[in-house]
Design a protein that fits this description.
Keywords: Signal
Radius of gyration: 28 Å
Helix content: under 10%
Largest sheet: 23 strands, mixed
Number of helices: 4
Structural class: mainly beta
Distance between the termini: 82 Å
Protein name: Pectate lyase superfamily protein domain-containing protein
Strand content: 35-45%
Organism: Methylobacterium longum
């Protein structure tokens, strides 16, 4: 008797824990293991009129009615629906609160578990226009519409017909949820991959919707013509394991086949509210809307542990990668791989990696940016000038703040500057920053610690804005060159009247060969501190310390 009770409790705990591993299977297939007599589990295909397979238009209409009737019964009776593998085609045009809802899984449906989102799994395909392919939960504006403790996933969802210009045609619309679990969901265009939703995944319709303390596993969004993800709901405490947005036209993740969005591929549209955290966030093979960015954050709390951007394309004037609108963004690690920044790709003005409006904050612990170059692919380049950060300087009283930790950049042929400030452009065209230990910006000026500055085959002045800088001369000099160590913070105000910090040390490494001298000059531009004489000095280094009024050779 004791063993039987223990086994029963174990079964209940497994069911309450959420999704089982993909290889695990219960009597109804993989997914959540909930005892049928406790959860009220029932097979969706056991309802009258529900069909799978390729259907005619009339049959799709009838199937939409049957599917909604089955979901409504599960809503009324609090059932858990298990959905076997197969393609469910339908025309569903439900409406709630004046908003098109398509096929709607209402708040009383405690779980909807398919056989998996991969090929051969469960597919929901709506052939209606201007409706979501599927709506999960209540999209009304009352807190009474919460679903608590739900479990959903194991399916692919999308449209079977074109949704061009259809503002309500979400691939998946998610409503009011609290302490619920979502996993293994694919939002994708069906019909050769070209029937993109207006918005691939939309969470809430406004801040009047609530999405609190939910756990989201693996979600992939390969659909969307305006946004891939648009988050409108109010919410805190949400935890995402993995979100992938992009994959290109018809799912072809490659150069020349990116998915074009008319707005931001990812937009957290929640001013004054919070979002939660992401373990992994990928935006790949996507094109920004004209003059926009890959991601916009309006929220007061977005935390990403690892963000990966690959094969994306910036389009229009001053387009960017991440844009904050009075938002707070914290990223532990950001990797940009082959983000296409070129005139040939439609980028004009001065593209930027980070940009902000108003009192936005960015904190990025590690930022790694690289391009394979034209030798790998003509679109694996950054070939026009761009900056790390640009803020909207027209806002009176703004308080932007940017803090970037360990940074490396390589493979770009377009000139890279820190920001639009005069001080930020130092060391100018005769030197390029290839990395730093930290970067900080406020509206007055920016500053780096431990910057690596690559000196070109030309004279260069390095200012105190770059503290503990390492100047590397890797090219072969074709004439005698000078490196001047300025005593001020910057070449112009702000910073021209400020002295370099006492105790600052600059390292100079001559790595490249050549028969010509490299002379290191003091702040007055005439006093010689040290001369690296021709090729005999290749592979040597010297350090120089600033006392507050003079330089000393260490």
């Amino acid at each position: 008797m004791r063993i039987t009770i223990i086994r029963l409790l174990a079964a209940i705990l497994v069911g309450a824990s959420g999704f089982a591993p993909a290889h695990a299977a219960g009597p109804s297939g993989p997914g959540i293991l909930l005892p049928a007599f406790i959860a009220g589990e029932i097979d969706l295909t056991s309802y009258s009129g529900v069909r799978r397979g390729v259907l005619s238009t009339a049959a799709r209409t009838a199937n939409g009615v049957a599917l909604q009737a089955a979901l409504d019964d599960a809503d009324t009776n609090g059932k858990c629906l298990r959905v076997p593998a197969g393609r469910f085609e339908y025309i569903a045009t439900g409406v709630q609160n004046g908003r098109n809802a398509g096929l709607q899984v209402k708040k009383g449906v405690r779980c909807l578990i398919g056989a998996g989102s991969i090929s051969g799994g469960t597919m929901f395909v709506n052939y209606a226009t201007n409706h979501p392919a599927l709506t999960l939960g209540d999209i009304g504006l009352s807190s009474a519409g919460y679903t608590y403790g739900g479990r959903y996933g194991g399916f692919a969802v999308g449209h079977g017909v074109s949704q061009t210009g259809q503002a309500s045609a979400d691939g998946l619309l998610v409503g009011n949820y609290y302490n619920s679990y979502f996993d293994d969901i694919l939002v994708t265009p069906f019909g050769d991959g070209f029937n993109h939703a207006n918005v691939g995944l939309e969470v809430g319709t406004s801040l009047s919707n609530f999405f609190f303390q939910n756990v989201i596993g693996a979600v992939t969004v390969k659909s969307g013509s305006v946004n891939g993800l648009k988050w409108n709901a109010n919410g805190t405490g949400n935890s995402w394991r993995s979100l992938y947005v992009g994959a290109g036209t018809a799912g072809a993740a490659t150069y020349g086949s990116r998915q074009a969005f008319s707005s931001y591929p990812v937009w957290f549209n929640t001013p004054g509210a919070e979002i939660g955290s992401f373990d992994q966030l990928n935006i790949e093979w996507s094109i920004t809307g004209a003059n926009l960015a890959l991601l916009r954050n309006d929220s007061l709390g977005l935390k990403v542990q690892y963000m990966h951007l690959e094969g994306d394309q910036l389009s229009g004037f001053n387009a960017g990668v991440l844009h904050g609108v009075i938002g707070r963004t914290k990223i532990d690690m950001l990797r940009m791989l082959d983000v296409y920044i070129a005139s040939a790709g439609g980028a004009t003005g001065t593209p930027r990696i980070l940009s902000s409006y108003g009192d936005s904050r960015f904190t990025i612990d590690q930022l790694y940016v690289t391009w394979a170059g034209a030798g790998a692919n003509a679109e694996a380049v950054a070939s026009i000038p761009f900056v790390l950060y640009a803020d909207d300087a027209t806002i009176v009283g703004r308080k932007p703040f940017v803090n970037v930790g360990s940074f490396d950049i390589n493979g770009n042929t377009g000139a890279f500057s820190l920001d639009a400030n005069t001080a930020g452009t130092a060391p100018g065209t005769n030197g390029a920053i290839s990395g730093f230990e930290s970067y900080r910006f406020n509206k007055a000026r920016s500053q780096t610690e431990g910057a690596s500055i690559e000196m070109a085959n030309a004279n260069l002045t390095v200012y105190g804005q770059h503290r503990r800088a390492k100047v590397r001369v890797t090219t072969a000099l074709t004439a005698a060159r000078s490196l001047t160590l300025a005593g001020t913070v910057a070449s112009a105000a702000p910073g021209l009247a400020s002295s370099r910090a006492a105790g600052d040390i600059v390292e100079v490494h001559r790595i490249g060969a050549g028969a010509f001298d490299l002379t290191v000059l003091a702040h007055d531009g005439t006093t010689v501190l040290y001369t690296f004489s021709g090729s005999a000095s290749a592979g040597t280094a010297k350090s120089f310390e600033w006392s507050g009024s003079a330089w000393t050779v260490l």
